[in-house]
Amino acid sequence: MEIGYLADRKLAFVAHPAGQRAVTFVLRRMRDREVVFENREHDYPQRIVYALDGDSKLRARIEGTQAGAPRVVEFPMTRTNCDSATAP
Q1: Is the dihedral of CA 14, 39, 61, 20 positive or negative?
Q2: Residue 26 belongs to what domain range?
Q3: 47-56 average pLDDT score
Q4: What share of the chain has pLDDT > 90, as a percent?
Q5: What pTM does this model have?
Q6: Alpha-carbon dihedral sign for residues 56, 86, 75, 19
């Protein structure tokens, strides 16, 4: 996965699923604590959302229509201090 500028200077999220062609989602909205990328032509997902939740949490979400039904998958993440990890 990567986020960067396309040749036309639009900001985009580009997914590189294993064994499949790359899929580009163009930036649709950027707010203070949320960005939304979209590709309405893609089978699933059609939208990717990243939102900050407080100072230490990030929510990633994919959403769209799959097999004619709406579908949303959330990926909650929490910032972790790597220095506090204990070695096995």
Answers
A1: negative
A2: 2-84
A3: 94
A4: 82
A5: 0.85
A6: positive
More confident residue, 17 or 28: 28
How many domains, the chain?
A: 1
Place of tokens 């990633």: 60
Burial 42-57 (b: 16+ CB within 10 A, else e): eeebbbbbbeeeeeee
Measured in residues, the chain has a length of 88
Strands (DSSP E) contained in the chain are 2-5, 11-15, 23-30, 34-38, 47-53, 57-66, 69-78
What's the pLDDT at 19? 83
Q: Is residue 11 a contact partner of residue 2, using CB atoms and an 8 Å limit?
A: no
